[in-house]
Amino acid sequence: MDNMEQNSNRTFIHNYPNSNIITTIYYESGGKSHLRKYIIHSLGIYPSNVKKIKRTSKNCPEYEIPDNYKVETTLEGYDIICETNYSSNGTVKFILNWKDSQGIDRYISNNNSASGVGKDFLMVIY
Fold first, then answer.
1. pLDDT on residue 107
2. In the chain, which residue ranges form alpha helices assigned H by DSSP?
3. Residue 45: DSSP 8-state
4. Which residue among 22, 87, 95, 125 is least packed, with the fewest CB closer than 10 Å?
5. Using an 8 Å Cβ cutoff, are 70 and 81 in contact?
6. 8 A C-beta contact, residue 13 and residue 3
């Protein structure tokens, strides 16, 4: 049975742990909705020196970042795999892997944030 959870303007639909697929629906203020499917390959682990995401405002919650987290989704027509990996000095590397329009494996990484590597990805494909 699928579960639905509401988080501000996003709805999460999942049957975890029976299924590794999570579907989200994002609602814009004008009512337009955006559907995205995620396939969780690895939830990773939380190291003793766990890092937290950077807040975009004071009201944003802080989430811990797991090591070896791996999720797949489609963005701008590309199937991408998103990963987090901690280095030996405790910094987190955010990595995106995808195949380009010629089928060549590509990747990009960023040591600052998941949104940073997402912005970097969009700069590469456009």
1. 95
2. 114-125
3. B
4. 87
5. yes
6. yes
* Closest among 42, 35, 1, 37 to 18, alpha carbons compared: 1
- The SS3 of residue 68 is coil
Q: What is the spatial distance between Cα 54 and Cα 58, in angstroms, rounded to a whole number?
A: 10
Would you give per-residue pLDDT tens digits along the chain (126 residues)?
567 655 567 889 999 889 999 999 998 888 889 999 999 999 999 999 999 987 777 887 888 999 999 999 998 899 999 999 999 999 999 999 999 989 999 999 999 999 899 999 999 998
- Structure tokens given for 123: 């700069």
Q: Which residues of 17-52 are buried (b: 16+ CB within 10 A; e: fewer)?
A: eeebebebeeeeeeeeeeeeebebeeebeeeeeebe
Say what the pTM is: 0.82
| Overall residue count recorded for the chain in this entry | 126
> In 10 A of CB 83, how many CB atoms?
21
Helix, strand, coil % in the chain, rounded to nearest 5: 10, 50, 40
